[in-house]
Amino acid sequence: MAVMRVVPDLKSAALDRAKAFYTAVLGLRVVMDLGWIVTLADPDRPGVQVSLMTHDATAPVTPAASVEVDDVDAAYAAAVAAGAEIVHPLTDEPWGVRRFFVRDPDGHVLNVLAHR
């Protein structure tokens, strides 16, 4: 299992205001907008991203970061074997990802995912 990218997930009370800030100040562009989560990326380096979230549509908490891996099932098995707290079970989401949430030793929740 390899990590493909890590994207910070920032909680936002006003997505439109936050989008305007990140596009005007940092020059990022919207690459995904599901209404409750917006992902912005650098137009010249699409892997450089930040996500803004009001909440999570199917999970009980807003994660601190999203970690894309090449094998989410292997990552899930490793988390369970390590005795880590699974906050949201391994799930196939309607927006095209398979993911789970895990809590790290300091209490940060990570959204571990792979695109289907």
Automatic annotation (TrEMBL):
InterPro entries: Glyas_Bleomycin-R_OHBP_Dase, Glyas_Fos-R_dOase_dom, VOC_core
GO molecular function: dioxygenase activity
Keywords, comma-separated and alphabetical: Dioxygenase, Oxidoreductase
Domain VOC: from-to ranges: 2-115
Keyword Oxidoreductase: yes
Full protein name: Glyoxalase/Bleomycin resistance protein/Dioxygenase superfamily protein
